[in-house]
Amino acid sequence: MPPRTFVLGLSRRSSYVCKSCLDSLRTANARPWLARLSSNAARRTQPSTHNPRRTDDAPDPAELQRILAEELERGPEAASSPGDIDVNFFNQEAPGKLRRLRDKEEFGEISGGLDSEIETAINDLEKKMINTAKMLQRMEKQGGRDKADQLRKQFKKTLRVQYKGKTGPEAEEYGLLRISGFSGPRQRPVANLNAFLARDSVVKGGIPKPKDVAECWKYYSAARKTLALAWQNVPQEVWNFLWMILSWEGEGVENPNRMQHIYILAKDMQAAGVPLRDSQQLLAMEAMFIEGWEEEAIEAWKKAVVTLGSKPETFTDYWELGVRMCCLHGDTERAQRAAETLLRSAQPPNARILLPIIRVLAAKKETVDQAWESYTHMRTLLGETITIEDYDEVIGVFLASDHVEYALQAFVDMMFSRTIDIRGRTRLPLTVGNHFFIGKWLKRLIGEGDLEGAYKVVVYVQNKGITPSPIQLNGLVGAWLRSGSAENLEKAETLAWGMIRARLDYVQLRQRRDIVRFYTPEVLPMTKRTESEPEFVCQTRATAETFSLLAENYCSRRLHDRLRGLFEVLQQAEIGPTSFLMNQIIRSHSQNGEADEAVRLYHNMTKEQNIRPDGHTFLTLFNSLSVNRLIQRDPDLTKQDVALARQFFRDMVNADWTFDSPDIFAQLPRTILFSMLKARDFRGMIIAARAMRELFAFHPPEALLIEMASGAGSLQVKTKRNMERLVGGRRTIETLMRKHRMELIKAGHPGVEMTEEEKLNELHDVLEKLILLKAGAHNSSQEEVEPLLEEVAREMGVYDIVVARDADQIARHRKLGKQVAESV
């Protein structure tokens, strides 16, 4: 039979072999990937004629290190190089078509699965190691035998460390991680996988990183088709290393496709004939189940009962896995038997394995009593070790399955050390049946995000004659509104308007007269209910907070008509409007393009209804100015904005309010200054800055000065034009600061260091100089400017504060609350 062609990975037989190749095959048995080696090493590594070595094997760096380490141990023996052999290499690219290869590098790429860079690196390593051996030999000849022996030992130690490979999370050692034996155009994915496995940064410190997990699957999935051609070429060490990374679920590592990757990897290992360890078998069963092969996974679990189910090290994990899978598959009886096997074993039982059984039993009405028995059994086994989280999970299970009575009983068990049985009672005991106790439960459910469960509790306790507190129901409405989903928004509106109905009914009874129903389909959105589901009529009355929640939501969603209808209802409900509600209606009118109506409502509510405005009110008013609403400026509206801004500022100073949060403290002064800057009210800006310094303890930060100098709306907008403007603004501020410091030096200041008070004075002086620069009056003297400022100060109602500097007036009108003052 004709010999095989000298090509890696091809099992075809060719009828043609050139004479030079036949001669080389008969005479040359040295490895084609070794350029030079000592004669003794060549003799030791030359394969026997009875068991010829496959010429298409890739180089084994571990064997290379072993040979060179032995070469170092031999001492001063000279290394001789075998003579070069002229070998011609051919590659069969198609049946009957041969192509002569250029050189050994191309042959190495095709036959060994190595590209030229890796081949060159191996050759360089070989040359360096041989040169090192020769250097040590010369040292011994020159009398430095002790030094040579020391270096030889150190070099051997380095070789052993390199061969040791990587270390895993549990200090397990992985040897040489390399896949060889693939060639052809499809070997590139294998080479990429090898490059990934060889990285020093992979599993650095023994712990995989998220990047390791993602890239491991990227390179392995790309190489799977090629590896499937010869699974036997993948070493066991590589399989173990891949499993360790892809199955990692440690802290800080996100691996959302973990089970899918394990399932595919386990199938590949099975196809390769690689036996799985016990822990790997359990994880592979779970992955198979999660990937949709439920019956196959359970069948595999049954077959492993003799092996995995009887070993002490896998006993617990095996039976717990069976309980979870059987519960999810609906085989409750088998799950219960598995749980009993686990709980009756000699090993310490984990009673929480009954939680999956409780969940599946509680899902059906006919088995809910069995679920309760399993819960009581678990509670007995846990004893004092039972945690609040255990109770919360049981409560959530019963609430999800609409068994509120059982959920309440579990909550009672959690809250009281003594047993209080409430199941089957028409009326709840006084210790449980009060809105304080129910309020604690509702607060906990809302805090944990179980909003649907909280609503079921509201319906249940009201049917038991208990009216929940408006505080808890407002919390539920607010949580639904914050979620943002359309379904939850509808639920929130329905419950809130139900509370408003209860409030109106209460007002009707109190007034002893009929009132016309106010709600219309446009104002009150109705939810669709089935015929079998009775409408829940809420008996908890709405409060001002209920109206505030709806008002804020309608305003943010720009539902102006609904908001106006809500305020009409507010009057019928005889609930006095608050500053928060006033702010929402003003903001809504401003957003709807009705700025005049917004101002009218502000005057009406503050003067006629005696609503006290706050900082948010004036922030809303300044934002309603045309310079803050319109893109295209209107000169007539801008003139009106100057008068309105000064009026708003006067009202703000005279109103009795204080800052309630650092956010409004940062937003209000900035909005006032920018509003006046846009309206080109430069005199009003100077007076406002001086007044806010006294009343707000406001000091303009340097970032705000740069924004005002550049005219950019915000430092956060990173456009090229904005950045150029910001650079120019920074230069302007630096120039004004230098001018201020030169004035200080002329006045006798040493000019070396400035106190904190002097730095704050500098910021205010730069602000005023910047405003005069914007106004084109930077050359005006102080004597020319001050009389104009005094006139504006009287108009803005701060003459006593800014000009006269009356200490009593300043103390009377200060707006800085204690909490905000401490944070400034």
Automatic annotation (TrEMBL):
Family annotation (Gene3D superfamilies): Tetratricopeptide repeat domain
Coiled coil: none
One Pfam family, short name: PPR_2
Superkingdom of origin organism: Eukaryota
PROSITE patterns, per database record: PPR (PS51375)
PPR-type repeats, residues: 578-613
Location of region: Disordered: 37-60
InterPro entries: PPR_P_subfamily, PPR_rpt, TPR-like_helical_dom_sf
Biased composition (Polar residues): 37-50
NCBIfam families: PPR
Family note: Belongs to the PPR family. P subfamily.
PANTHER family in the record: MITOCHONDRIAL GROUP I INTRON SPLICING FACTOR CCM1, PENTACOTRIPEPTIDE-REPEAT REGION OF PRORP DOMAIN-CONTAINING PROTEIN
Protein name according to UniProt: Pentatricopeptide repeat protein
